[in-house]
Design brief:
The chain has 550 residues and is α/β, with parallel strands linked by helices. Helices cover 37% and strands 19% of the residues.
Length: 550
């Protein structure tokens, strides 16, 4: 008998999902897409309601909840102020809200440990793990740990890392110490790293030991006493030690590029060493999840260890994926066979909301998808920037041509002017999208990572053809983070790419997320139109409606 589960993640980029025991994920969405606040910690109650609307399911066997700290009524009230919550324990806070304000009902509430939810988030998107496959997590922290290694089919976790050894936290703190925003701009550090040299590895390797001796102020000791986070004292000590190290390095003349290169190399070495030393049987598959695996260079290095048959990276590798992981953890002994793509479980934009005449743009509808694909390809061949909102919205941080901006990647100068137009200050190049039929012409050693490349979660070394012909999507170290599209899984964008190649001879396009700087990826038609007009780009496609700047 088919059973249904509502999954929720209370954390940075909170999220919700509906999972069927037979059909897998039916709907998933992050709260940030609905409230417009990037990486929001607002309780994902709106997201849960939206998932029920999308799936048509309102009655559940259980609500599966994941969080990175002790659950409390204080946390729920802090991040759920708009919901007017009330009760004496966190179970009842949630249950009372849904029963009083929605049609959602569930038999039970089950709390799933943070890293356990991470571990099972990945399997929703790939082939189910076999006994002996490795489920590996790594992030800042959760329930007192920064990572686990679990062999599927075992009774317990094989290896765990404490918070004080968190590579993810060091990376996060370096991001802040270099003047960027923690938990938001770590990708900028990855981009900067390619422009520097890892000169300070010895200093970074001493961080864990030195942080243990960092004194806390009375105020900080009080914060630890009041915190619901496991080992919050270790968190504060590691943060102070990392900030101090970066300040000392800068005072001694270190460039931000060299510091970024060092923390990137440090992270790659630490994670690969940890995995290599704790894998005792080779040629099994590896499933990666957790915020550190948003670092696509680390994922490439893990694949290059050569000890895994395939490396599968969760498309929603951050805490938003834990909504799915929590539900799948409950089903861990009997996983659904049906798999999804992250662009199969979100909302569809409403074309009817595009109304009214304008002297700024023309508007037409092209009902036939084949004709629409040709029109888009022709516009791209004319070097027009196309903002595409079509099909279901992606789940996770990567835009996979359903909420994307497409453009040619023929010249290096594209990085500067397109980033400027979008209000971004990224150091990474734009990512490419190509068809699977030409992928081996453009990227080296795809085997072991092809499935992850469908979701744009791993870098690969580029071929001479790609380096020469697509410089806007190739980084200075001659790597790229591609999305590889198959005709079977995404026939529409595959058709656009095919026609574009026929018209231009080019095999790849830039694919970057459709959002203005520091805003979530587009969810609604209203935000799509406003963002498009603000950006001043050439074309907006919403469903089968085409708006073109006059």
């Amino acid at each position: 008998m088919e059973k249904f589960y509502l999954g929720m993640s209370f954390s940075h980029n909170s999220s919700a999902c509906v999972v069927s025991s037979k059909r897998g994920v039916l709907a998933a969405i992050s709260q940030e897409r609905l409230n417009g606040e990037k990486n929001t910690k607002e309780l994902p109650f709106d997201a849960a309601v939206k998932c029920c609307e999308l799936s048509g399911v309102y009655n559940f066997e259980a609500l599966a909840v994941s969080h990175y700290e002790n659950m409390s009524t204080d946390y729920l009230e802090k991040y759920g102020k708009k919901y007017n919550l009330h009760s004496d324990n966190w179970h009842d806070v949630i249950r009372n809200y849904f029963r009083e304000h929605t049609a959602i009902d569930f038999e039970d509430i089950i709390h799933v440990p943070h890293h356990w939810a991470h571990a099972f988030a990945t399997v929703a998107f790939y082939d189910n793990p076999k006994n002996g496959d490795y489920l590996i997590t790594s992030d800042g922290f959760g329930d007192g740990y920064s990572g686990i290694i679990y062999r599927y089919g075992n009774d317990e976790v094989n290896v765990s890392l404490p918070l004080r050894a968190s590579v993810g936290l060091v990376y996060q703190f370096v991001t802040g110490a270099l003047g960027f925003t923690e938990l938001k701009h770590e990708g900028k550090i990855t981009g900067l790293a390619a422009f520097g040299q890892p000169k300070y590895l010895r200093e970074f390797y001493s961080l864990e030991v030195e942080s243990r001796n960092v004194p806390l102020t009375e105020e900080e000791e009080q914060m630890v006493e009041e915190s619901h986070i496991y080992d919050f004292g270790d968190f504060l000590k590691l943060k102070k030690a990392t900030y101090s190290l970066v300040e000392n390095l800068k005072a001694a003349g270190a460039t931000r590029e060299d510091i970024a290169a060092t923390v990137q190399e440090y992270a790659e070495q630490c994670v690969c060493k940890w995995i290599y030393e704790n894998v005792d049987e080779y040629d099994y598959n590896c499933y990666l999840s957790g915020g550190l695996f948003a670092n696509v260079k680390i994922n490439q290095r893990i694949k290059e260890l050569g000890i895994f048959k395939n490396v599968y990276v969760c498309p929603a590798m951050g805490d938003e994926g834990n909504a799915i992981g929590a539900a799948y953890a409950i089903l861990s002994d009997n996983l659904p066979e049906a798999k999804i793509s992250p662009n199969q479980c979100g909302t569809i934009a409403n074309e009817r909301l595009i109304v009214g005449e304008s002297d700024k743009y023309s508007c037409r509808r092209i009902a036939n998808d084949n004709e629409l694909a040709r029109t888009i390809a022709e516009m791209l061949s004319e070097n027009k920037i196309v903002c595409l909102v079509k099909g279901k919205m992606e789940f996770g941080p990567r835009a996979l041509c359903h909420r994307s901006i497409l453009y040619n990647c023929d010249t290096k100068e594209t990085n500067t002017w397109l980033n400027d137009k979008l209000g971004r200050t990224e150091f990474m190049p734009f990512a490419p999208v190509c068809r699977e039929e030409v992928a081996d012409d453009l990227f080296l050693e795809l085997d072991g990572g092809r499935d992850s490349a469908k979701h744009m979660t791993m870098t690969f070394d580029c071929t001479p053809e790609f380096i020469e012909s697509y410089p806007a999507a190739c980084h200075v170290d001659h790597t790229a983070r591609p999305q590889i599209v198959s005709q079977n899984e995404d026939p529409f964008i595959w058709k656009v790419l095919s026609i574009y190649q026929l018209l231009t001879g080019k095999k790849a396009l830039i694919n970057t997320s459709f959002n203005l700087h520091n805003n979530p990826i587009i969810e609604s038609t209203e935000v799509a139109v406003k963002s498009w007009i603000t950006s001043g780009t050439d074309v907006l496609v919403v469903g089968n409606t085409v708006l073109e700047k006059i």
